[in-house]
Amino acid sequence: MSEKAFVMIKPDGVRRGLVGEIVSRFEKKGLRLLRGEIMEISQETARVHYGHLQDKPFFEELVDYITSGPVFAMIVEGKEAVANARSLIGPTNPAEAPPGTIRGDFGLAVEENVIHGSDSPEHARREIRLFFEK
Ligand code: RTP
């Protein structure tokens, strides 16, 4: 069954001009780009999006990072879009992400890991509402 995933190229990825390359990987995989938009994230949206991490010592740093410049937010659609997007993205820490994954190919460290992908269809729906339906 077709599913939607929310994916966001973080400010470091946008700054480094990686949007085209990254979108191309999703398209080549077979996921369809339904929406894609450069946007600035407010502090409030960042705090809601990363609410599950608010007790972590790196939370403020994370909010500063994700609001440090425009992001490229997108909705991709296809069979098992959430799982397929996450396998393209790779593990959270780019140092541990294998070459061939987006974080493995384009990132060095967890503080700037280039991209976000929703971790479940339910979170995808919540994130699509948060970023696109306000
Ligand atoms: P994301 O939500 O961005 O796709 O990342 P994720 O599921 O792979 O990882 P999660 O544990 O939800 O962490 C969210 C984001 O927080 C930043 N982080 N920094 N400094 C640190 O130790 C640390 N740990 C996580 C990363 O930007 C991570 O993607």
UniProtKB/TrEMBL annotation:
Main location (coarse class): cytoplasm
Subcellular location: Cytoplasm
PROSITE patterns named among the record's database cross-references: NDPK, NDPK_LIKE
Record carries keyword Metal-binding: yes
CDD domains: NDPk_I
Gene Ontology molecular-function annotations: nucleoside diphosphate kinase activity
Ranges for domain Nucleoside diphosphate kinase-like: 2-134
UniProt key word Heme: no
Pfam families (UniProt xref): NDK (PF00334)
InterPro entries xrefs: NDK-like_dom, NDK-like_dom_sf, Nucleoside_diP_kinase, Nucleoside_diP_kinase_AS
UniProt keyword annotations, A-Z: ATP-binding, Cytoplasm, Kinase, Magnesium, Metal-binding, Nucleotide metabolism, Nucleotide-binding, Phosphoprotein, Transferase
Cofactor: Mg(2+)
Catalyzed reactions: a ribonucleoside 5'-diphosphate + ATP = a ribonucleoside 5'-triphosphate + ADP; a 2'-deoxyribonucleoside 5'-diphosphate + ATP = a 2'-deoxyribonucleoside 5'-triphosphate + ADP
Binding-site residues for ATP, renumbered to this chain: K10, F58, R86, T92, R103, N113
Active site positions: H116 (pros-phosphohistidine intermediate)
SUPFAM superfamilies in UniProt: Nucleoside diphosphate kinase, NDK
Known EC number: 2.7.4.6
Family: Belongs to the NDK family.
Subunit-structure text: Homotetramer.
Function description: Major role in the synthesis of nucleoside triphosphates other than ATP. The ATP gamma phosphate is transferred to the NDP beta phosphate via a ping-pong mechanism, using a phosphorylated active-site intermediate.
Name used for this protein in its record: Nucleoside diphosphate kinase
